[in-house]
Design a protein that fits this description.
By secondary structure, the chain is an alpha+beta fold. The chain has 25 helices and 27 strands.
């Protein structure tokens, strides 16, 4: 109590003074009494009453304390006190400290969550962003000795002066499953801004005309109209607005006319192992040495599509978060994902078994629902919602990850919800955009029968943006496989097949230690019945669909993006969505099933329905993509010299293809790739005429001029591949 009385006396004598010393004293007192144990509001209010201080003054002391303990000076103070003062001078310590943080020795991880804390005393910590060493400590010491030969210091003393937040590199520093678009855009953006910052601007140009942007978002902002209600308009993101565009990003004379070369990086398709037949291209990060103008033009090309990609990724994630936080009663959320196949290992493995390990499939579902009093021990109501999270696994030796496997998972989820007496009227699924698993024409077609199949009133499937589906479902699958491997290595269990893995999970992993979710549920299936699989006709532009909704049989409603935040969608009136400007207009589609009784000719005709629908749109000098049986190419590009017509007699083209009379064909010339290093650039083969069946038409490249040399965009390439996926 005597200490409290002394503090009260100090506060009483200084809190009303306005001098600089008085303010410093008050800041010191409030910061020293605002420790980490003073987090709750009750303790703070009680302290304020005892000391005669307003709560705002104590909160200010907490901010001062937090700022000091997270500052660079706090981190340096910890290193400063590590060694005796009589052995190493203060100046040498500071030099060593700064050397550990210099370029080429260490660098920040770049992850905002990588914060290292160090204890200074009871309930007192300092923190700093984590740095990763770029070389060994011995190499760092040798570099220091070479740079500062006048400083005499041993390696052990040098290592002791290493800041607490600098650590060696480890496997966890790898960033995996990154988005290709984000990585490439940041690489090109940094290279361009580095050049702009280093180049000498002309005397008559002002810095404001060609600013050096710190972040990619700043550059994106100037190419779009101002945000409306916190979001850019869809028309602007799709680059259809006449008031904004990539043209707002101006290039200086050095950037548009300079003949100098610069090194930068981008992703391109490369052929691997050319001696092997049926080789496929691989997307590889390569170093390029080109003109400055080409690098900046590449950045402008990325700006055409990157803002929309980033908007879709953020929008879909926000919709999921909003739905989980405001989940209505009788609604359920299922986040589906296939984990990488588990490879069974043995504690004592012979050499030949390493190359022929048994694999098994693991499908992960992260489920969010309202609590049930009888099953979860807590009740959930509209006034006091209690959301339960569960991890639902389906383990199987069946390695075919397709729509039939997914439908089996949906069936098991429904059976589980019925078994715990949880009534689901509205099911919301979130998945990635994998075509064969969730987004092909057969997957979308099967959703049209979800209402009679499962008994829901409405069924939704939402797709994350490409490369942005990473979440708890990935960690859940990885945890199961890691625990299985550890148990095998410890000799506690033997896992030789999928059934053994299921038995291990059932006995050891059902009850989690984490408080983030309630339980794990496991199901096992020997094989998936695919005899009654339904086949559907293609659905156009299915790559652009991110939300599928159905409330009636044999009909689905699709839109470019999901919405769970507007007033109408919160109430369940999804057809009256108020965010149409962001999500796009909803379209009604009736998937057409190809019956199993159809003969092969009818099925082939049905799979070419898109070609029949668009063949009339092909005109002379159009560039089109056509199907091919060549294993080295996904498709051929062709310049049309004569539209669809019927042959009066048998005819052969310059490539040796012969067609009988009455056959409907296109006539034209093929394009050939200029280089394997850039597979999107083509040149016309004018000397050889080609005949192509009308039914082989895949895609019309309306934005490409039929010149001698052409370059197609990567989005167009992916759209053509999407059409091919739908025909599988």
């Amino acid at each position: 109590m005597a200490v409290v009385a002394d503090i009260q006396e100090i506060i009483k004598s200084t809190k009303l003074k306005r001098s600089k010393n008085a303010r410093s004293v008050m800041n010191s007192v409030t910061a020293s009494i605002s420790g980490e144990n003073l987090a709750n509001s009750r303790g703070k209010i009680k302290l304020c009453k005892n000391l005669g201080l307003p709560a705002r003054r104590v909160a200010g002391g907490q901010r001062i304390r937090s700022r000091i303990l997270k500052s660079e000076s706090s981190a340096w103070a910890l290193t400063q006190q590590k060694t005796r003062k009589d052995s190493i001078s203060e100046e040498t310590k500071k030099t060593v400290y700064n050397f550990w943080l210099s370029d080429g020795i260490s660098h920040p991880t770049g992850n905002k969550s990588d914060i290292k804390r160090e204890r200074l005393g009871p309930n007192l910590y300092t923190s700093h962003m984590t740095h990763v060493l770029e070389k060994t400590q011995t190499d760092a010491y040798l570099d220091f000795v070479s740079k500062y030969p006048e400083i005499k210091i041993g390696q052990r003393a040098f290592e002791k002066l290493r800041p607490f937040f600098v650590r060696p590199a480890s496997e966890k520093d790898r960033n995996t499953c990154c988005c290709r678009y984000h990585v490439e855009a940041n690489l090109v953006f940094k290279a361009c801004m580095k050049f702009r910052k280093s180049c000498d601007r002309e005397t008559d140009s002002q810095e404001s005309d060609y600013p050096v942007f710190e972040k990619m978002s700043d550059l994106i902002h100037i190419t779009l109209c101002p945000k409306v209600n916190g979001f850019y308009r869809k028309n602007c993101l799709d680059r259809k607005c006449s008031l904004c565009g990539v043209g707002n990003f101006k290039l200086s004379p050095n950037e548009s006319q300079s003949s100098s070369t610069v090194e930068w990086q981008k992703y391109e398709y490369k052929l691997k192992n050319r001696r092997v037949k049926n080789v496929r291209r691989r997307l590889t990060l390569i170093k390029k040495k080109t003109s400055v103008n080409e690098m900046f033009l590449n950045l402008k090309k990325l700006l055409e599509t990157f803002p929309a990609h980033q908007h879709r990724s953020n929008w879909q994630s926000n919709q999921l978060k909003s739905l989980v936080q405001n989940l209505p009663v009788n609604h359920c959320i299922c986040i589906h994902d296939y984990s990488e196949n588990y490879r069974c290992v043995e504690k004592e493995e012979i050499q030949s078994n390493y190359f022929q390990r048994t694999e098994c499939s693991i499908h992960v579902t992260v489920m969010h629902r309202h609590a049930i009093l009888e099953y979860d021990g807590v009740d959930s109501t509209e006034e006091f919602p209690e959301i339960i999270t569960e991890h639902f696994f389906v383990i199987s030796p069946d390695l075919q990850h397709d729509n039939d496997f997914t439908k089996y998972v949906q069936k098991k989820v429904k059976e589980y919800l019925d078994s715990i007496s949880y009534t689901v009227d509205h099911m919301h699924e979130f998945t990635d955009g994998c075509s064969s698993q969730y987004k092909s024409r057969h997957c979308l077609g099967s959703l049209s029968t979800a209402i009679p199949d499962f008994g829901y009133k409405t069924f939704h499937r939402n797709f994350f943006e490409t490369s942005h589906a990473k979440g708890p479902q990935d960690a859940a699958g990885g945890f199961i496989k890691r625990q299985a491997d550890i148990s095998v290595l410890r000799g506690n269990t033997v896992i030789q097949n999928a059934k053994d893995l299921f038995t291990f999970c059932e006995s050891s992993l059902k009850k989690p230690r984490s408080a983030l979710f309630k339980r794990r549920v496991f199901r096992y299936v020997d094989s998936i019945d695919r005899h009654n699989s339904k086949i559907f006709k293609p659905i156009q532009q299915n790559r652009q669909i991110h939300h599928v909704f159905t409330s009636t049989c044999n009909e689905i409603i699709v839109s470019d993006l999901s919405c769970y935040t507007c007033d109408q969608c919160i109430l369940g009136n999804y057809l009256n969505c108020l965010n149409v400007e962001n999500t796009g207009v909803k379209k009604t589609i009736k998937p057409r099933e190809i019956t199993q009784t159809s003969n092969e000719e009818e099925v082939a005709q049905d799979t070419d329905i898109l070609s029949e629908d668009i063949s009339d749109l092909v005109s002379i000098n159009s560039v089109v993509a056509v199907k091919t049986d060549d294993d080295n190419f996904d498709y051929y590009l062709m310049k049309i010299s004569k539209g669809s017509h019927v042959l009066n007699s048998a005819e052969s083209d310059s490539w040796g293809a012969t067609y009988p009379p009455g056959f409907e064909v296109f006539r034209g010339h093929y394009y050939d790739k200029i280089s394997d290093n850039d597979p999107l650039k083509y040149k016309l083969l004018k000397t050889k005429t080609a005949l192509v069946p009308t039914k082989s038409l895949l895609y019309i490249l309306a934005d490409v001029d039929a010149s001698y040399r052409i370059t197609i965009s990567e989005d167009t390439h992916l759209d053509i591949l999407s059409v091919l996926d739908n025909l599988d």
